[in-house]
Amino acid sequence: QVQLVESGGGLVQRGGSLRLSCAASGRTFSRYAMGWFRQAPGKEREFVASISGNGASTRSADSVKGRFTNSRDSAKNTVYLQMNSRKPENTAVYYCAADRNLYYSEVVSQNKYDYWGQGTQVTVSS
Predict the structure, then answer these.
(1) What SS3 string covers the chain?
(2) pLDDT tens digits along 44-86
């Protein structure tokens, strides 16, 4: 079992930056691929970024490439999503997710993840 707790959400102005954190329980954190997803009002949840268990492989949605960076600190059992150059359309609830056995092609699929956090609201003002 893995429990995930996101934090760091809030209100940010257009063009500003915000860093989300996702703290995971469990002693085998390094074996889990971690993903970030978001759901804007009235829209379906979509993939944002992912990072492999050892941190060597990352993947980002085209819409956030060059602006968002994800990383992980195994000593703290935490993954981070650094979001720069925020846009109002980035307003959403952001979720982190985890799963042990994901191929690179699968990390974008939310139904491949077994564990989810409760989500954290990010609002970008214009």
Answers:
(1) CCCEEEECCEEEECCCCEEEEEEECCCCHHHCEEEEEEECCCCCCEEEEEECCCCCCEEECCCCCCCEEEEEEHHHCEEEEEECCCCHHHCEEEEEEEECCCCHHHCCCHHHCCEECCCEEEEEEC
(2) 999 999 999 988 999 999 999 999 999 999 899 999 999 998 8
